[in-house]
Amino acid sequence: MNRWQNLWRFIPLFGLMMLLLTGCGSDTISALKPRGPVARDQLFLMQLSLGIMVIVVLVVFAIYIYVLIRFRKKKGDKDIIPKQVEGSHTLEIIWTVIPIILLLILAVPTVSYTVNLSANHIENKEAIHVKVTAHQFWWQFDYPKLGIATAQDLVIPVNKKIALEITSADVIHSFWVPSLAGKQDTNVGMTNIMYLEADEAEVFLGKCAELCGDSHALMDFKVVSKSEADFNAWVEDMKTPVAIPAEAKAGEQVFKDNCLSCHAVSADGLGFGPNLNGFAKREMIAGVMPRGAENDRNLHAWIVNPQEVKPDTQMPPVPLQEQQVNDLIKYLNALK
User: Fold this and answer.
1) Which CATH code fits 28-72+84-238?
2) What is the pLDDT of residues 112-142, one digit of tens each?
3) Are 336 and 311 a contacting pair, CB within 8 Å?
4) Is residue 14 reached through a cis peptide bond, with omega within 30 degrees of 0 on the bond before it?
5) How far is CA 86 from CA 62, 68, 82, 97, 99, in A?
6) CB atoms within 10 A of CB 238
7) pTM of this prediction?
8) Cα(212)–Cα(242) distance, rounded to whole angstroms?
9) Per-position DSSP letters for 128-162, written without gaps between them
10) Domain boundaries in the chain?
11) Cα–Cα distance between 321 and 1 in angstroms, integer?
């Protein structure tokens, strides 16, 4: 008994810890803080369904409590059977019609928003068209009308529809940017269609929402929304050939000899691995490790043993000498 009494003392502590943990995380990965029209519509549907459920629960409990009090057996009451209501047409109609009305209230906007989300925005000439391909364990973004291909960072202009054609290269994944739109499965041999739109210039976190292998939890990406002017400048920058400095020439040769068979570095190149055009401007290495001049050790760790960073990744360890690895890092940091 004393042991159970001691355990009860920890409940307030657990409650306090849960309250504190609710404040952890980023605002850009919360479906409860929408930053675009699609996410706002989906939050409305969540609030609507939750509101209906709360009303139903309150009504049921109110009736339950009323019956407990109104028809409880009092001292001196005889054992009698209450009046039976089986077969009452009035009650049958009430508890049939009310659920139908509640379902219609929920179904009409749900169907409307779902049809709009999956509508053929691909034909919208004003939208930015992006083909999204999921891989174990990274994301490929191809802008066919702009002649650009990139990976891990989906760059978009603000206040503009982004029409997405989503598929998978290997297994089932799921594309999810909580602050901008709900998740959409990516299936091999199929193309799903959706759109998203950002209200402001921000970096939004995206994830794979379908268990897809050992490194599913590390299959992250980012949606970088920019002003239209900054987006157009990014497009031109991606199309401009990179001038490799003299100190990175040795690394360029290492790349050509060992990496070029999988990784493209041109504006629209697609390969077995991620396109590394503009790699030096990305925030993360392999989607999970911070990059930058002070974080070359992360890039080094990824090149030497990618399986240690992302188990079951398709990138094999590259048999390079230490000097070759350092030269390759200089080259990759020059891909701006």
Assistant:
1) 2.60.40.420
2) 888 877 766 777 778 899 999 999 989 999 9
3) no
4) no
5) 21, 19, 12, 17, 19
6) 22
7) 0.81
8) 35
9) EEEEEEEETTEEEEEETTTTEEEESEEEEETTS-E
10) 28-72+84-238, 246-333
11) 65
- Of 77-86, 93-102, 112-121, which one has max mean pLDDT? 93-102
Q: 235 to each of 86, 134, 143, 224, 228, how far by Cα in Å?
A: 71, 22, 10, 13, 11
Q: For 205-258, how does the pLDDT look when each residue is reduced to its tens digit (9 = 90+)?
A: 999 999 988 899 889 999 999 999 999 999 998 888 888 888 888 888 888 888
**Number of residues written out for the chain:** 336
Residue 289 carries which DSSP code?
Answer: E
Q: Give the pLDDT confidence score for residue 301 in this predicted structure.
A: 85
The listed CATH number (2.60.40.420, 2.60.120.460, 2.40.30.100, 3.40.640.10) that belongs to domain 246-333: 2.60.40.420
Task: Decide if 28-72+84-238 and 246-333 have a common fold.
Answer: yes
C-alpha dist (Å) from residue 42 to 39, 174, 190, 237? 5, 17, 24, 35
